[in-house]
Amino acid sequence: MDDVLVLARLQFAITAIAHYLFVALTLGLVTYLVVMQTRWAVTGKETHRRQTRFWGQLYVINYAMGIGTGIVMEFQFGLTWSGLTHFVGNVFGAPLAIETLVAFFAESTLLGLWIFGWNRMGRTLHTVLLWLVALTAYASVFFVLTANGFLNHPVGYETKDGTVRLTDFTALLTNPNALSASAHILAAAVVTGSFFIIAVSAWHLRRRTGHDEFFWSSMKLALPLAPVFILATAALGGWQIGHSVRQTPTKYGERSDRAQALVETFTEKFGPGNYFPPGFSQTAEFVMIIPALFMMLIAVIGGLFMIKRNLIRRKALLWLLTAALVLPYVSNVSGWIFREVGRQPWAVYGVLKTEDAVTPGLGFGTVLTSLLVFGTLVVGLLIVDWALLLRFARRGPDGSHLGRAPGEKSEDTRADLPRQAGDPAPAASSPPPSVPTF
Fold first, then answer.
1. N or C: which end of the chain has fewer CB within 10 A?
2. Could you tell me where the DSSP H helices lie in 174-278?
3. In this entry, which stretches build a coiled coil (predicted)?
């Protein structure tokens, strides 16, 4: 049983982490897209329209590829964790059902209208659609974390006839564990989106790909906001930890008398056992913080060098801004590990042990097979996603076909910044490259 439990947990961890990597970028990009398209709707400037189309195409790629990992997660609740769904499904399943309606119906429908609504509706209506896409995405995160918040801090329920039943839906929706986590994750997602835009823009500016003004404009939007959202993420993380210390004190090890007293309560109710999580969960808390400090340092230095466009002349710094894209992902994954592994050995804190949440009678071979199949699938989706993102990001705005009217040609509105000494001169006589299709 121990081997089955380890495999089942590893399988869900791989899927959940992979899905979260998609979600973080999706939420971050859609927030910036709202700003870009709203500026286009207000000013009518072609620059903002091109920005929306380019970054929007990357957003659509990431969104589409991330759906697969979400579906795999839903399957696992029924196949591997039926002990959890049978015992707390009446409570845990309610917000997940709402999230499914919001994410897979409302959000996807609105996004489809936005994708195919280019050149078919007015700027204002088209922009309203994107606002609704963003709001439904935020709502989706809230309902997922409402379900997850119940696992960390169960509220609004009663146990009757061997199952947990919902008694107070308002308490479930206003669970401080879920509310603080939602705010923290949304801020962290915007940080991820910021560094994605910064990294792609820095790559083009360093390589002088011919769209300097376009990517300088994107850099001016994302880089100054990055430190703001890093601070917001840290502040909201402190708020979340404040609730967590009171609600799940054993997550922080033997740091408090409250944790020791709670372990005694668990021992009386469930029998002797180790009620503290693995040590690496607390290591993950430390790992989560270090990248955030580096992100703040890099963002502040980059922001200072934006004065009089000095950043353009600092190719080493532009390279660093590109490489810094990995930092928000390291911080996000570490934070997830700290939150979820720190809850162990509980599937529902103080109510249901993880070992009792696994599907009864599940065999080692069955779980190993599903681990290999699902693991290969989600890793493959990540590889394909980043290969597509890299491919279309490198092509620049002229390679974007999102929102392009039939027969519309690529606009080569290249406005280079002043070239520095040693930069190669542009080949004026060279024909323009052919535009790839999407």
1. N
2. 176-207, 212-247, 257-270
3. none
